Fold:
Amino acid sequence: MLVCTGYAAESPSAPLAPYSFTRRAPGQQDVEIEILYCGVCHSDLHFARNEWGFTAYPAVPGHEIVGRVKSVGAGVSKHKVGDLVGVGCMVDSCRTCPSCQEGLEQYCDGGLAGQTYGGVEKQTGEPSKGGYAERIVVDESFVLRIPENLNPAAAAPLLCAGITLYSPLRHWGAGPGRKVGIIGLGGLGHMGVKLARAMGAHTVVFTTSPGKVADARRLGADDVIISKDPEHMAQHAESFDLIIDTVSASHDLAPYFGTLKREATLVQVGAPDKPLPFNVFPLLMKRRNFAGSLIGGIKETQEMLDFCGQHNITADVEMIPIQAINEAYERMLKSDVKYRFCIDMASLKA
Structure:
């Protein structure tokens, strides 16, 4: 076993604090990664505070991991010592169900077992622990190549925020001649703007805050709609081919449905902790669709990383030491970050 230092929550109400634990020793197909950077996702906070109801304590969050390969098992062929690599939301799956066979491991019939944190390691039977730590051991099939031209710290959020937006944009055909809306300009939303624009779509941001208009345009938005202004929303009625909703708080979806074309789709990727209320009639009247999407499979995540490398796309990050993680959680709840916190894991040595 490998002794590892990290940060963990001991209970739903406890702040994250230094924590020593063990990782499994690398097996034949395993890659040991020295973690350089770890993005901070809103899901980390939900998990640390047991807001989804499945957290096992002590809980080590973190699933936007970038690091260097430190060692590899004898059977590893995809990665070598010194490679810049990433680990996202999954470190395993059943690999045999129809979804896994299609490269859609995020929809594995085994459910949440293969999560980077909050799952259960097949090799040890222990709860999996995430990337707020000095190192991690992962099966090579779930380790991704990070393009060397990208800033590794700013690339870390691509492993969750990036693929969460890339997958639905690709699946529902964002591209030239298509009008795509992004609801919310936060950690997820700002990635949606960058990716949709790079795909060639006419990209529009929906925001409740007039103060975000300039930043939305800086990030690449062709237009910005103040969603709490009914007249502004009416100007865009029945004009969108695709809308992706990144908001993780309860909100009314009906006004957004009205901006979709007939048979167009609104995709939910934000994960509110309470059910979303909405009126179905705007869907019925124009045969519109309301869908959901969850990250992406390993093949698609690598495709996304390569796309970002080609277009020089990374997240806008604010670097923090691990000792500031609890303050970062409180600021994240207030949307006081542009647009993703990233932990410099070298700070663990302090």
In short: The longest strand covers residues 30-40. The first helix runs from residue 42 to 48. The mean pLDDT is 96. The radius of gyration is 20 Å.
